[in-house]
């Protein structure tokens, strides 16, 4: 436990930020999971909508500095790759 006033305040700030960041990071994880499930189910339109939501959530998390921008880009790229494969299968 901290004894120094500034460190006590810093601990309070860190806890508030951790809780706020969890909301965005957890939300991004949830949307990515829903997008993967929609892609695996095979519905192209539902998958496209789910991927758009996931991309939006990832961008928000990266914008706020909760995840690194390259991390968000990598996850978006993988989702889009799976979606493109689904589109290709649906067209064939």
- Number of helical regions: 3
Largest sheet: none
User: What share of residues is helical?
Assistant: over 70%
Outline: elongated
CATH superfamily: Ribosomal protein S20
How many domains?
Answer: 1
Work out the radius of gyration.
18 Å
Distance between the termini: 63 Å
The CATH class is identified as Mainly Alpha
The number of E-state strands comes to 0
Beta-strand share of residues: under 5%
From the 3D structure, determine the CATH topology.
Answer: Methane Monooxygenase Hydroxylase, Chain G, domain 1
Query: What is the ordering of alpha helices and beta strands?
Result: HHH
CATH architecture: Up-down Bundle
Mean pLDDT: 95
């Amino acid at each position: 436990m901290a004894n120094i006033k500034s460190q006590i305040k810093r601990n309070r700030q860190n806890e508030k930020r951790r809780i706020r960041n969890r909301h965005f990071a957890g939300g991004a994880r949830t949307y990515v999971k829903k997008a993967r499930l929609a892609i695996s189910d095979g519905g192209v339109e539902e998958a496209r909508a789910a991927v758009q939501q996931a991309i939006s959530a990832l961008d928000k998390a990266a914008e706020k500095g909760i995840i690194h921008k390259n991390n968000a880009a990598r996850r978006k790229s993988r989702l889009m790759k799976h979606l493109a494969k689904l589109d290709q299968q649906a067209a064939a």
